[in-house]
Amino acid sequence: MIKACDLKKTSVIDIDGAPHCIENITQQSPTARGGGTIYKVRFRNVSTKNKVDKTFRSDDVLQETSFETKEVSFDYKNGDRYSFMDLESYEAFELTEDDVQDILPFLLEGMEGITALISDGRILTLRMPDTIDMEIVECPPAMKGASATSRYKPATLTTGLIVQVPEYIAPGETIKVDTRDSSYLSRA
């Protein structure tokens, strides 16, 4: 059991008998005296990938799903199957394209730092690190005199993901990308 005030992005909650990962948590503190803090949480069902929005008070109790975490690496893609390897036991496992749909724009061959959530020997979901370094393969040329506060331009990364970057960034540069919202953070 876990209280709503103790929820973290890494928590996996049991809702109606199915495990749900937390996608987003927002906190609202009421201005009235005696009002408790309210937590608005967006969950994603691990198996169906459906979103569920719920609101809790800080002392509401939720059922946590038991799971273990393992660090894995992405090895290669074979058709619509994606091969991963457990970095501790060196066991390989495959997931379908539907299973990795959420992290697909960030997967690079040989990538490490991916966390697998496992329950009863079954992989619930994969979590990417919060930031990753990716190379720009295509974007309009860099503008001389462009500043960091200037306008943005679209840049295509090695996986095909399109990110808005400042005008002074050129093709071939490596940038840091936030995997939570697919946004540009800085040069790598």
Short description:
With 188 residues, this protein is mainly beta. The protein is built from no helices and 16 strands. The strands form four sheets. It has a five-stranded antiparallel sheet with strand order 9-8-7-10-11, with no helix packed on it.
How does this structure look, described?
With 188 residues, the protein is mainly β. It folds into three domains: 2-62, SH3 type barrels (Roll), CATH 2.30.30.30; 68-127, OB fold (Dihydrolipoamide Acetyltransferase, E2P) (Beta Barrel), CATH 2.40.50.140; 131-187, OB fold (Dihydrolipoamide Acetyltransferase, E2P) (Beta Barrel), CATH 2.40.50.140. The chain has strands at residues 2-3, 12-15, 18-28, 38-45, 51-57, 61-62, 68-78, 81-86, 92-96, 114-119, 122-127, 131-138, 152-157, 162-166, 174-178, 183-187. A hairpin with a 2-residue loop joins β10 (114-119) and β11 (122-127). The chain starts with a strand and ends with a strand. The model has no long low-confidence stretch (mean pLDDT 84).
Helix proportion: under 10%
- Tell how many strands the DSSP assignment holds: 16
**N-to-C CA distance:** 40 Å
CATH architecture descriptor text of the largest domain: Roll
Give the low-pLDDT segments. Answer: none
CATH topology of the largest domain: SH3 type barrels
CATH C-level class of the largest domain is Mainly Beta
Number of helices: 0
- Rg over C-alpha atoms, rounded to the nearest angstrom: 20 Å
What coarse outline follows from CA principal-axis ratios? flat
Number of domains: 3
Largest pleated sheet: 5 strands, antiparallel
Sheet with most strands: strand arrangement: 9-8-7-10-11
Q: N-to-C SSE series?
A: EEEEEEEEEEEEEEEE
Global structural class: mainly beta
Strand content: over 45%
Mean pLDDT: 84
